[in-house]
Design a protein that fits this description.
mainly alpha
Length: 195
Amino acid sequence: MSAITMPIHPVTGVRAIGFTRRGPVWPVLGGAEDAGHPGAEESTGEGSGDTPPADPKPTETVEFWKQKAREQEKRAKDNAAAAKRLAEIEDAQKSETQRAADKVAAAEAEIATIPAKVADALRGHLVALHKIDSADAELFLTATDPDLLLKQIDRLVAQADKSKKRNHVPREGNNPEPGENSMHAFARQLFHGGE
């Protein structure tokens, strides 16, 4: 009988455990070897059904993970306190010009948000004033600049006014009798004898 040499995987370096029509069968890395497979250790069979399960590993217990979570929470609190102290130290080391520059930057950032706040308040007022549907307001009134918002409102209200104007015929359905035509009068005299 000839022994077949199984191929070795080019990446993992593991020897194949068999062949199928599709090619070699590779073992699962990290998988446990079962009894009956090549290279598996045979169990002795002594007390195999009577032994209690072994104590779980420390990493498999709930208490272990609770303790790890408590340690992480404590470390996070310590880091937050340290970051706060660092910010206080950096603030104390700043010169007066740096502090003034920070205040100016904060004020400029606040000023930059004012048009958006005005536009939000204006949007609410104008929607109520012109009785604009909330879905239309959300869809069409998107400006954060008050001037642009006013233009959007004007356009939306103008479009709504156009849709309200419908083609109206004041005497629709009233079909007055047509006046007497000279040809009709002649034909009537001719055929009816002047009646």
